[in-house]
Amino acid sequence: MGHLSTHVLDIAHGCPAAGMQVTLQRVLADGSAQTLASITLNADGRNDGGPLLDAAAMAAGRWRLVFEVAAYFRARGVALPEPPFIDRVSLDFGIADANGHYHVPLLVSPFAYSTYRGS
Question: Which end of the chain is more exposed for a tag (fewer CB within 10 A), N or C?
Fold first, then answer.
């Protein structure tokens, strides 16, 4: 059965991004977005509630994850310029197979990020 998950690692400090806020949105045909969930990542940099979308909620289409990067680093005491180089990371991605496992990890620092389709 399909599901969507995420995991965020703070590569500036070498640890999971505990406390980072993440928003899940469905991108609609007209380009607008519908917010489905807002979560706070746990000590492991993951959602405490398990998958962001479980098998019943999975659907093919366009999706977006918004990661509140600057707020996370400021909360950790990192002095950032104003405006920050990276404020939010907004990742738009597609789900082609609602029965598939989609894992969207984020590796992030105040000045760089990387993502990929994980397993």
Answer: C
